[in-house]
Backbone:
């Protein structure tokens, strides 16, 4: 792990991974931060902006209930303007690992409150985070843990296996036994070894019985308070999960704590969770050494603490492979490849990068408007995944060269041709918002850019500094400059020149990909 970011190019790349995108001045601020990169992390770890209170204020100010509009308004405001950028960015990554979605029952208040669990616990120990997620009523509703009861033949009640299965498969240990470098263990026949069995699912489901929604002060089911145990609903018999015996007579709370600890201590968990977070924050095809280094920090942060998410996130973002530009080679072989380095940005990240670079602001003092049809146009929106499997699977590879070389590019799962068109149309709306401020709910100030449009050299320098923070390729630079000069020679107006160049930039691989 490196301990310094002292180069403007590396600082810009770091901020694209660690935040929702750098704003003007962020690179310089990082390079001159008191205490260096360690000081920056300590500062970010100390900052926290939750969403529920803000979403409620939006709802109250607009006279609406706390619905999806208020929730997404709070999300955009926190993501685009929050000073706790690292926490907000990690919470968004966690929301795609520990998935809860409105497409499964939870709504408004419950979803905002669940997201706040991720915000608050983003830098806690992993077992603390996993327990908070497990007991949240939104998760209880989404994966039907709420109301799960012990088997009773007379009452025809059965333990619900839904959460028990997903907490193992997706939230902790994964499907297959893993080596410390992320590669699956193989049996003597060369086959992958399951990490758990159906028996483990059934037994864990028994251990997790008895939980239900708490009551609000008005007597209704709470969408924000942790679930509470109902003694008579819990299966108090002996269970055996993953080879560990849960003694008979334990309460729901005791069985839950034992289950969380079992998953937390499982040898798969550091590897499985580390790889997922690497993919969400940095690159799609991390080398085995990168995964192993992060997993070892998960196992022990150097102070004897397991699952210290501060240390894990720091290890992910400061790994030596990121500085060197190294990734997995083709066909999962040992070695390193610079060609396979980086990742395709998620559509929502593309939008946040663009909006932060242009310093887009809300035109309504009461709220931050959601971008119209985000889920339909972008293929994703926070806490709106189509299922518990997120918007895409971590091993997804589009047909062709990527799949043929046994690489992954998960985000391509939602980047169909029509989705690309819809995303570009939404970005076009942001570009136009600098002039139609009376017709749009958001806007940005184009004055500086407009004043430079007749000076191609200065215009290009502004674009490279503000939209790429020094990362624009020579190829794109020449293309945009030639486009600008050609339109100028045709006496095309200022508006169309700025529109066209910005639109071409947001379509470019330079902007849509992350190094």
Residues:
């Amino acid at each position: 792990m490196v301990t310094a970011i002292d180069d403007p190019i590396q600082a810009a790349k770091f901020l694209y991974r660690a935040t929702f995108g750098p704003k003007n001045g962020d690179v310089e601020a990082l390079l001159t931060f008191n205490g260096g990169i360690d000081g920056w992390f300590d500062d970010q770890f100390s900052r926290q902006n939750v969403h529920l209170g803000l979403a409620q204020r939006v709802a109250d100010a607009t006279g609406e209930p706390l619905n999806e509009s208020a929730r997404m308004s709070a999300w955009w405001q926190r993501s685009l303007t929050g000073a706790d950028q690292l926490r907000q960015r990690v919470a968004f990554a966690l929301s795609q690992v520990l998935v809860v979605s409105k497409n499964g029952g939870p709504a408004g208040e419950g979803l905002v409150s669940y997201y706040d669990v991720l915000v608050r616990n983003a830098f806690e120990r992993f077992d603390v985070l996993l327990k908070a997620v497990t007991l949240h009523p939104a998760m209880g509703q989404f994966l039907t843990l709420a109301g799960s009861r012990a088997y009773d033949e007379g009452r025809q009640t059965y333990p619900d296996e839904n959460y028990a299965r997903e907490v193992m498969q997706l939230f902790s240990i994964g499907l297959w036994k893993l080596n410390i470098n992320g590669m699956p263990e193989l049996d003597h026949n060369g086959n992958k070894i399951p990490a758990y069995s159906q028996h483990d699912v059934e037994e864990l489901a028994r251990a997790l019985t008895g939980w239900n929604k708490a009551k609000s002060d008005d007597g209704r089911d709470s969408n924000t308070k942790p679930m509470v145990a109902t003694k008579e609903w819990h299966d108090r018999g002996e269970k055996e999960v993953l080879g560990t015996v849960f003694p008979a007579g334990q309460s729901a709370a005791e069985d839950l704590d034992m289950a969380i600890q079992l998953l937390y201590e499982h040898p798969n968990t550091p590897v499985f969770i580390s790889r997922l977070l690497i993919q969400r924050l940095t690159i799609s095809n991390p080398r085995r050494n990168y995964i192993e280094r992060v997993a070892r920090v998960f196992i022990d942060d150097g102070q004897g603490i397991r699952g210290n998410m501060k240390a894990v996130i720091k290890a992910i973002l400061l790994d030596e492979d990121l500085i060197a530009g190294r990734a997995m080679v083709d066909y999962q072989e040992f070695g390193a490849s610079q060609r396979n380095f980086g990742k395709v940005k998620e559509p929502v990240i593309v939008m946040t990068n663009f909006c932060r670079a242009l310093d887009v602001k809300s035109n309504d003092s009461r709220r931050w408007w959601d971008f119209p049809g985000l889920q339909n146009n972008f293929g994703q929106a926070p806490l709106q995944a189509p299922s518990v499997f997120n918007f895409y699977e971590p091993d997804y590879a589009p047909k062709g060269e990527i799949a043929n070389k046994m690489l992954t590019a998960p985000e391509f799962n939602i980047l169909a041709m029509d989705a690309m068109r819809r995303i570009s149309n939404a970005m076009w709306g942001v570009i136009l918002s600098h002039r139609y401020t009376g017709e749009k709910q958001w806007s940005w100030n184009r004055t500086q850019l407009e004043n430079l449009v007749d000076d191609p050299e200065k215009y290009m320098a502004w674009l490279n500094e503000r939209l790429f923070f020094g990362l624009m390729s020579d190829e794109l630079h020449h293309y945009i400059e030639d486009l600008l000069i050609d339109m100028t020679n045709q006496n095309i107006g200022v508006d169309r020149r700025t529109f066209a160049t910005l639109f071409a930039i947001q379509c470019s691989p330079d902007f849509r990909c992350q190094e």
About this structure: The mean pLDDT is 95. DSSP finds 25 helices and eight strands in the chain. Residues 149 and 159 are 5 Å apart (CA to CA). The longest strand covers residues 239-241.
